[in-house]
Design brief:
alpha/beta; 6-stranded mixed sheet; 5 helices; 6 strands; globular; binds guanosine-3'-monophosphate-5'-diphosphate; binds magnesium ion
């Protein structure tokens, strides 16, 4: 799995990937965090914000937090995260808060076999929104610390990520929100997809073939 956010020495990161990540002088990136209840959205957000594990209570509406990364290749980059509750009665909110978002993080509980199909249905439903069909998507295959966690390749298959619109850039990252493993790597990929999307002259020229889709499974 990836390293803990903010704990990796910069030398491990190569030290050269800096300014090209930030060609747009925008104060922050707007990112919504979606996923079924208890998948680990709030834990991931608090981990990013405080660089330590913070216990959560079920999110009744949404949390919003601005997080400026202090270390690593994205040092200085600010994300404004909207962590939307995942209980079924709150899911209608997803659409509202996803409008005009720069990126979507969809968190999966990798041991929750029973609700994978439900997660798939909700993911495809939200991505069918006309303004989201080319929005960069980061899937966090969370709870990889637990025995029986499905690996990212299996989750790609179950969620039908290969069937997403060709215009949809996506990436999947294995994570443990409790330790923070994989979160930084995932955000790096999301940032890259956002930057790439913005630097393209038109949406139609982006990610035309399946070959150009983002898929890695780092554990
Ligand atoms: P949500 O915001 O998506 O609804 P939460 O989910 O962040 O509230 O997390 C739900 C539960 O999953 C919490 O446990 C939390 O500690 C746990 N959790 C989140 N991420 C991980 C992970 O990567 N690994 C493990 N083992 N547990 C995780 P409780 O017991 O407080 O309900
Ligand atoms: Mg929550």
């Amino acid at each position: 799995m990836g390293s803990i956010l903010g704990k990796s020495p910069s030398s491990e990161r190569g030290g050269t990937r800096t300014s090209w990540h930030f060609p747009f002088f925008q104060s922050h990136l707007h990112v919504v965090m979606l996923g079924l209840d208890s998948s680990g959205k709030t834990t991931a957000l608090l981990r990013l914000q405080f660089d330590q594990y913070v216990s959560t209570i079920p999110t009744l509406g949404f949390n919003t937090e601005k997080v400026q990364l202090k270390e690593g290749p994205l040092k200085g980059r600010t994300f404004k995260f909207w962590d939307i509750g995942g209980q079924d009665k709150l899911r209608p909110l997803w659409k509202t808060y996803s409008r005009k978002t720069d990126g979507i993080i969809f968190v999966i509980d990798s041991v929750d076999d029973e609700r994978m199909e439900e997660a798939k249905m909700e993911l495809h439903k939200i991505l069918r929104q006309p303004d989201l069909t080319s929005t960069p998507l980061l899937v966090l295959a969370n709870k990889q610390d637990l025995r029986n966690a499905k690996d990212p390749q299996e989750i790609v298959r179950i969620l039908g990520l290969m069937d997403l619109a060709p215009s949809q850039p996506w990436h999947i990252e294995a994570t443990c929100a409790v330790t923070g493993d994989g979160l930084e790597e995932g955000l790096l990929k999301l940032n890259e997809m956002i930057v790439q999307k913005r630097s393209q002259p038109s949406r139609s020229s982006l990610f035309r073939s399946k070959d150009s889709r983002r898929f890695t499974a780092s554990i």
